[in-house]
Amino acid sequence: MKSVLSPHGNIWVIGDLHGCHAEFEALLKQLDLGPADRLVLLGDLVARGPDSLDTLKRVKELCRAGVARTVLGNHDLHLLACWRGFSKVKPKDHTQQLLDDPDCDRLMHWLRAQPLAIDLSFMTGDQTKRAIAVHAGVPPIWSRKDTLRYALEVQHHLSGDVKKLDDFLQNMYSNEPRVWSEDLTGYARVRTITNYLTRMRLISKNSSMEFDFKTRPSAKQPKGFRPWYEWPRRSELKIYFGHWAALEAAVDTTQARALDGGCVWGGELIAEELVSGKVVRVPANQTT
Ligand SMILES: [Mn+2]
User: Fold this and answer.
1) CATH no. for 11-283
2) How far is the CA of 206 from the centre of ligand 1 (A)?
3) Interval between CA 32 and ligand 1 midpoint (Å)
4) Comparing C-alpha atoms, which of 231, 263, 286, 244 is closest to residue 25?
5) What is the pTM of this model?
6) How many A from CA of 133 to the centre of ligand 1?
């Protein structure tokens, strides 16, 4: 066995699409997927880019066919909140066309059933490599098992009945509490999990989140805070993440791999094969 996602094929982990449909099609063409190959998308499928509707339709189709899986990002969650009327569409997101589409309800019900974390662990020789896909990151205080369990707590709210979904979306927008505790309950708990998995960039030594710093990490950081992936972890785990375009996908360590190449900002769409580490890049504005 190589991976639980596909024992024999390639597993391509792909950075933020942000409505870059043309580049996604160009990437799919380059990857030239065989029947055993699989895709794992790191969330923020929509918003900012030119074509969120066709991007989402394509990803849904690939997921339904068993070819792709995706985690949810902060922009995907924001779209759900707009759909349910709890937040306003930002003109710069270019998502109104998607919300006005006759297929919108079907797309949103599919979207809300997607996870916030995917286990990517695989075997190489007789060794198990622990790996996970999330949108923003995993705080060092959480193990792989913790992360999958906490992500499921959020997924239960999102994918439950519509009342449960609405209650969650109404309680989703806050930066508080900033630090995890196993004692957290109710919406404070699921909100904190959501913020770690979909919004985190800098954290302090005790994993308290900072929400204002969004630029490149070489810029001056607030005292006591560092990028989440720089704090030592207790257990071995490689985290594949997107979200932080200013990193320019340059983080590539034994514990963390950034894959948001900032395609929507004129950068590139990046895919990395899980086991071989082979990388495929499509520059922004390249079409099929
Ligand atoms: Mn994001």
Assistant:
1) 3.60.21.10
2) 23
3) 27
4) 286
5) 0.97
6) 13
CA distance linking residue 169 with residue 81, whole number of Å: 6
Strand partners, 207: none
pLDDT the model gives residue 160: 93
pLDDT band at 53 (very low <50, low <70, confident <90, very high): very high
Q: Ligand 1 centroid to 161 CA: how many Å?
A: 26
At residue 1, the pLDDT reads 59
Residue type, 92: K
Per-domain residue ranges of the chain = 11-283
Instruction: Confirm if 194 and 148 have CB atoms less than 8 A apart.
Output: no
Classify residue 33 by burial, with Cβ atoms within 10 Å: 0-12, 13-18, 19+: middle
Beta-sheet pairing, 202-204 with 122-124: unpaired
To the nearest whole number, what is the mean pLDDT of the chain? 96
C-alpha 42 – ligand 1 centre gap (Å): 9
What separation in Å is there between the alpha carbon of 35 and the centre of ligand 1? 30
> How many C-beta atoms lie closer than 10 Å to residue 41's C-beta?
29
